[in-house]
Amino acid sequence: MNAKQAAPAAPGTSAATKLFVLDTNVLMHDPTSLFRFQEHDIFVPMATLEELDSNKKGMSEVARNARQATRFLDEIVSGLEADIAVGAPLGVHGRREAGGRLFLQTEAIAGDLPARLPMGKADNQIIGVVKHLQDAQSPRQVILVSKDINMRIKARAVGLAAEDYFNDKVLEDTDLLYTGMTALPADFWDTHGRDMESWQQAGVTFYRVRGPLCPTLLVNEFVWLEGDTPFQAQVVETDGTTAVLATLRDFTHQKNSVWGITARNREQGFALDLLMNPEIDFVTLLGQAGTGKTLLTLAAGLSQVLDDQRYAEIIVTRVTVPVGEDIGFLPGTEEEKMTPWMGALEDNLEVLNQSDDEAGEWGRAATRDLIRSRIKVKSLNFMRGRTFLNKFLIIDEAQNLTPKQMKTLITRAGPGTKVVCLGNIAQIDTPYLTEGSSGLTYVVDRFKGWGHSGHVTLQRGERSRLADYAAEVL
Prior knowledge:
Elements: E1 19-22, H1 24-29, E2 41-44, H2 46-54, H3 61-78, E3 88-89, E4 101-104, H4 122-137, E5 142-145, H5 149-157, E6 161-163, E7 181-183, H6 188-192, E8 197-201, E9 204-210, E10 222-225, E11 231-239, E12 242-247, H7 266-276, E13 282-286, H8 293-307, E14 313-318, H9 334-338, H10 343-354, H11 360-374, E15 375-379, E16 391-396, H12 403-410, E17 418-423, H13 439-447, E18 453-457, H14 465-473
Parallel strand pairs: 1-2, 1-5, 2-4, 5-6, 7-10, 13-17, 13-18, 14-15, 14-16, 16-17
Antiparallel strand pairs: 3-4, 8-9, 9-12, 10-11, 11-12
Helix pairs in contact: 2-4, 7-8, 8-10, 12-13
């Protein structure tokens, strides 16, 4: 490719628009990344196309994404009437957010790379293309975009600009992630109590307050105030300058226990309130190991399936990512194959079964059989195309899901179905996800403030003093 052809600049393109060179893993992570660079141009090297081609076979998420990326590339290029060297506009099929052009490598590029980077490797070929474009396009910015940390390090080592793909990252700092609750200042009633209205309805007291905090509150967010007269409430309505707060049921008291389980701390009480509320269709619970996420969810599920008969059955699913070495193929049906992954479910069912002291051994055995008949364990691999009607769907270890997988799962929910996502973003086992790009972080951020969803970050471990101390010091 000579310098004239290698300058993928459409008429009118200025040095202000950047040229992004895409690595294969970006397209296989998010095929729509082609349309996510706003007014800037994109360059796809031949090595990237070759790697897409070699990864397109199979039923995995990566293979599916490779095929989708190839289809997008075909759509963009097939509608081009001019010479491909001048680039194809990315704003096809009404995608107005993409104002740049797509350039494909049309001729061989002999990248001037150090001898220590052998050209036989696809990564190094792509780095060679970036180096060539940088020399030919100066002073325009040419940037390599890759999810591969080592490739970005290599690119920077030879003086090239390289970035991660940030578009699906919800937050840079997960400390800023919405916790679902806010501590009220000590002078809350002084600053918000003027012109306050209060009324009672079905045993719940409502307060309509006005003040500086109201614009920052979100629907279904929990608020609390400590002191001589502790106060806990849920925001049920916001209107810019005003907010309506509703008092909560005290789940720490035995009379309000859920399947024999009572809340041991404030956050667990908030979680049970969301789990038991029929108006809330989507619940996310975050927290480290031992905070009670699975136990509370199962107790609420069993109570609503067996006692209230609000849902037909409980469906439990999780990502099957091993922490150590994989144990190979597992025999049996779908349910039997998932059993080794469901140890946490078994442990919690044991606790719930023991909570009924008066039932006796026979009663507990009968309850155990009844519970097992109402809990179905499903694999994530067979979720596409299904619709769950009137089910209590629990997605465990949700931090290992990508945003796309999370969308696939949540959109399975039919009428009358409640979806509960549990996870700990500090324990991500999938190699290509971080705390900022996890599907769990994504849904917590996107669903906050919706009237039929709620979120709580559980803080205190309630497993044992050993587990709490280990979580703190190890």
